[in-house]
Automatic annotation (TrEMBL):
Transmembrane segments: none annotated. SUPFAM superfamilies: C-terminal effector domain of the bipartite response regulators (SSF46894). This is Helix-turn-helix domain-containing protein. It comes from Mesorhizobium jarvisii. Coiled coil: none annotated. One of its GO terms (biological process) is regulation of DNA-templated transcription.
Length: 100
């Protein structure tokens, strides 16, 4: 998303009222705090699972990928999406993007 200096069309605060599961909500909260920057999957896993006994799921990357699929279906009705990651320097990670 190119920063044009104008605010996003959908208020980011509206994401807090979305009907989300507990892990989905935590991920959205993390992405809201990072907005408009991206956060890597590894960093997201560290934040989500660092305080869990056993360190979270065996493969947190797969778990996060599945949750992102669900979020990509839910967030557009609130005017937001999480774009699919592209390859290349500076494109890794997840971020929120306002829909046009």
């Amino acid at each position: 998303m190119v920063n044009t200096g104008s605010p996003p069309r959908a208020p980011i605060e509206g994401l807090s009222s979305a009907s989300l599961g507990p892990i989905e909500r935590r991920i959205v909260e993390i992405l809201v705090r990072a907005y408009p920057r991206s956060i890597t999957r590894d960093r997201l896993a560290d934040i989500l699972y660092s305080n869990e006994a056993g360190g979270g799921p065996d493969n947190p990357g797969v778990t996060i990928s599945v949750i992102m699929i669900r979020l990509r279906k839910k967030l557009p009705r609130l005017g937001w999406t999480i774009p699919k990651a592209r390859s290349g320097p500076g494109t890794e990670g997840y971020h929120l993007e306002a829909l046009p």
